[in-house]
Amino acid sequence: MINLKLFRKDPEFCREALLRKGVDEQVLNQLQELDLLCRNDTSDLNLLQQMLNERSKQISAAENKEILKKEAKELSSKIKNLKGCLEANEKRRKDLLLSLPNLPLDTVPRGKSETDNVVVGEWGFKPHSPTFPLLDHLQIADNLGLLDFERGAKIAGHGFPVWKGWGARLERALISFMLDTHTLGREPGANYEEILPPLLVNRDATTGTGQLPKSEEDMYHTAKDDLFLIPTAEVPVTNLHREEILSHKDLPIKYAAYSPCFRREAGGHGKKTRGFLRVHQFNKVELVQIIQNHETASLDALANICNSAESILQKLGLHYRVIELCDADLSFAAAKCFDIEVWAPAEGRYLEASSCSAFLDFQARRMNLRYRDQNGKVHFCHTLNGSGLATSRVLVAILETYQTPEGNLRVPDALVPYLQTHLITPKV
CA 20 to 30 Å from 352, out of 30, 133, 266, 340? Predict the structure, then answer.
């Protein structure tokens, strides 16, 4: 949630920042009115309670107690009614706060759509035009017998591919390679603790990281137990410390987690979403950091997460670029975000393989995640996450980059120890 004290202290700053993320000004007016109403009701309630306390003291010493008792009874009734109104308005205020996105940092580029995002870096070079016709990832996968869309659709519906044979092994190899890179100290600062989280989470968890209430329709829900299939491991992993007060000595906390991810909003059909470019279930390794409440520290941690994600693509020898998202394209919870896009030669375009975000204290306020500093003062933590990486887009890039004229697939050097082969060939 946004900081209500900041909204009161500097409403114009908050208004300008939220308008940049597309919030309706009428919603902000409503919040301001509700907050003023709650504060006035609280003040009135305190005054009535004080008056009731005074009447209670006077009754014991008074000769004619009936008048004072009647006044006390009337005050008690007013207090009860006002408490009911205050509780209702506080709930409305909280619901409204939960519906508001995070404030973008001042350093976030201004823009109206994703077309205003800014390229801030590239690594490697686009592969030279080959001397043979390039096949796209679907043709390669079909020729090598890597996956089965038809049978996936038969058992689960569109957007649930079945990986098989070398396809399943490639997927498993990628996951293991990414987890090992992030958790075994193979890269500077990549000392993450591995987590294997639940795939179902409750409403408190999804509200804590910001998926609810905004994105409930995009999530798979089990009505009987009121649980949600996770859209990313960010949800269970960040919520590990919900409602806790950590010590400053415990921070930073760095977790890496593999999980399947489930998203109802897989997009429409067509060239840009075909195959496994956009599916309802995919695999991803997620990086989560929980740190102290300092903006500079958050920006440093965000750079660290981006570096960890980029190292995977570098080790795989895949060309990519880094995009800084403008305010209009930021996610609901993000204060600053960089996307890492890998190049797919046959597609002729970049594909998002990672999104790395700093949330400042936005998520921590929603999940009441705090820490105690060296002076004993309690603060809300800062949280961050990033994909390190999503396997589906990376596999598209691998298939299209490492195909050979003979119809084989060269295995990137980084994956050879996991697959125990340098070349994947079609089944005879």
Answer: 133
180: enclosing H helix or E strand: helix 166-183
- Return the CATH number at 41: 1.10.287.40
Residues 132 and 61 in one domain: no
Structure tokens that stand for 248 in this block = 């400053």
Q: Are strands 193-195 and 253-262 parallel, antiparallel or unpaired?
A: parallel
Per-residue CA distances from 32 to 18, 71, 94, 101, 407 (Å): 14, 34, 12, 16, 63
Long-range contacts of 182-186 (CB under 8 A, 24+ apart): 182/256, 182/285, 182/287, 182/308, 182/388, 183/256
Task: Please indicate, yes or no, if residue 108 is contained in any of the structural domains.
Answer: no
Q: 72 with 136, same domain?
A: no
- Tokens representing 414 are 């980084």
Place of tokens 């003023």: 36
The CATH number linked to 158 is 3.30.930.10
Beta carbons of 48 and 73 less than 8 angstroms apart: no
Query: How many C-beta atoms surround the C-beta of residue 18 within 10 A?
Result: 22
Annotated catalytic residues are 263, 278, 352, 355, 393
Instruction: Say how many domains are in the chain.
Output: 2
Sign of the Cα pseudo-torsion (192, 195, 201, 204, in order): negative
